[in-house]
Write a structure and sequence with these properties.
The protein is α+β, with helices and mostly antiparallel strands. The protein has a single domain, classed as 2,3-Dihydroxybiphenyl 1,2-Dioxygenase, domain 1 (Roll), CATH 3.10.180. The chain contains four helices and nine strands; from the N terminus they run αβαββββαβαβββ. Strands 1, 2, 3, 4, 5, 6, 7, 8 and 9 form a nine-stranded mixed sheet that branches.
């Protein structure tokens, strides 16, 4: 399978933004930018609210647990862009392709993510310092 086959149709699914105050962040996106706000969810120790702006989504993430991935991110780096998520046609094949090419994965196999999607993360060391989430 070629890279083109694996990544055909890949697109940005959302940008994940770590925030300290979820309600305040939602108010900005809703009241100032006119975003459509989706119901809150929980995944991987985070509280998540997805907001939609046209065809683009932003995933607002926070955590009350300092030991969760988002809690650790906020403690170390503060609020800001946490990850970029790409939707791929075949998540399992994309992960295998990354492994075969020698890229470091944080998740060897897909796991449950927000909104019922399967997700897996590629280590920032493999992607010029950006945490990448892959989803199908």
């Amino acid at each position: 399978m070629t890279p083109t086959d694996v990544l055909t149709g890949a697109r940005i699914a959302h940008v994940g933004v770590a925030v300290r105050d979820l309600d305040e962040a939602v108010r900005f996106y809703r009241d100032i930018l006119g975003a459509r706000v989706h119901p809150p969810e929980a995944a991987d120790g985070a509280r998540i609210v997805c907001v939609s702006l046209g065809e683009s989504d932003v995933e607002l993430l926070t955590s009350d647990d300092a030991e969760s991935p988002i809690g650790r991110f906020l403690a170390k780096r503060g609020p800001g862009i946490h990850h970029v998520c790409f939707r791929v046609g075949d998540l399992d094949a994309a992960l295998e392709h990354c492994r075969a090419a020698g890229y470091q994965l944080l998740d060897q196999h897909p796991r449950p993510g927000a909104d019922g999607h399967r997700v897996a993360f590629v280590h920032p060391k493999a992607t010029a310092g950006i945490l990448l989430e892959l989803t199908d």
